[in-house]
Amino acid sequence: MKATTAKTRAQFKTILFATDFSTAAAQALPYVKKIAEHFESNLVALHVRPPVAHAGTEMGTWPDDLEAAKAIDEKHNEEILDTFTGIPTQVLIETGDIRSSVDAAIQKNNVDLVVIGTRGRTGLGKLLLGSVAEQIFRTVECPVLTVGPHSDFSRGTPRQFREILYSTDFSPHSQAAAAYAVSLAEEFQSRLILLHVIPEPKAGDLVSASDVTASSKELLRKLVPPEAETWCKPEYFIERGDPAEKILEIAKSRETDLIVLGARREKGVAGAATHLPIATAHKVVSHATCPVLTVRH
Q1: CATH fold of the domain at 14-296
Q2: What's the DSSP call for residue 254?
Q3: Closest Cα partner for 286 from 134, 98, 124?
Q4: DSSP-assigned beta bridge partners for residue 15
Q5: Do 174 and 216 contact (CB within 8 A), yes or no?
Q6: At what angle do helices 23-39 and 178-188 cross, to 10 degrees?
Q7: CA atoms within 13 A on the CB side of 121
């Protein structure tokens, strides 16, 4: 597939931060602040909680339960506003399904970026990433920044991503993310690393390994506008092996501050793709030592 030059400019005018006030959500706070301050964004902080009154509670306790829930909501509202002092912030506290609430908030507020933290658990029945974060980044229309449990904010400077790693398999969904990688590298004057991982050679392959490497590197070069060479000095890597493992390996060894990936549109049963061992984005988000920006096509 022919690669195209990235021209889109990232403009995050409104950011949606989805929080459950957990440790995982707290991991994402520094990144929300960094990006919102840089782009002078408006922030929508969304907390979705279970309904207070439901079939499992006694009717006689509803007034007290509602009053207690109101007090907790007020405390959460104050906590969010105190956390984001200086950033225009709107607090939304909803009940019900988080995915529906996120979709509604995105549409109503013209959100350009969603930020969410995740514990990155794996295993049948405990796939928090699959049930929440990955459902979001595979279904919402705007880019999603997922901050996994191993993200280390302390390595970065307060307002800058020093190095951005963009990985692509040259499919349409991965190429859509190239524009964001290039634009963010320009915004933060970051080093830009472009990576393509190809399968190990097999007996009977008609194209030599060197030819595949050369053609892949040329496709990577086409993703970066010529003028970008003057300010980000992009580097191009062609690796062989498992894509997720190579992405994580390079990001860790270079202390990359942001990984950018394309994310396929979810098809079939919602969330089913998260249970596949080949879900590269899932693996990367779960184990990366930096946040991961996923862009749908």
Answers
A1: Rossmann fold (3.40.50)
A2: H
A3: 134
A4: 43, 113
A5: no
A6: 70
A7: 10
Question: What is the rounded distance in angstroms from the CA atom of residue 19 to the CA atom of residue 136?
Answer: 13
Q: Alpha carbon of 177 to those of 26, 50, 64, 84, 205: distances in Å?
A: 26, 34, 49, 28, 30
> Which residues neighbour 18 within 8 Å (Cβ) at sequence distance 6 or greater?
25, 46, 47, 48, 98, 102, 114, 115, 116, 136
CB within 8 Å of 78: residues ≥ 6 apart: none
The three-state secondary structure class of 253 is helix
Residue type, 188: F
DSSP, collapsed to helix, strand or coil, labels residue 71 as helix
Question: Which tokens hold the place of 57?
Answer: 């509670």
Burial of 198 (0-12, 13-18, 19+ CB in 10 A): middle
The pLDDT tens digits along the chain (297 residues) read 444 444 567 889 999 999 988 888 899 999 999 999 999 999 999 998 877 655 455 554 556 667 777 888 899 999 999 999 999 999 999 888 888 899 999 999 999 999 998 876 544 333 334 457 767 877 888 999 999 888 876 655 445 789 999 999 888 777 789 999 999 999 998 999 999 998 776 655 656 677 888 899 999 999 998 888 777 789 999 999 999 999 999 999 999 999 999 877 655 444 444 333 336 888 898 899 999 999 976
pTM of the full predicted structure? 0.85
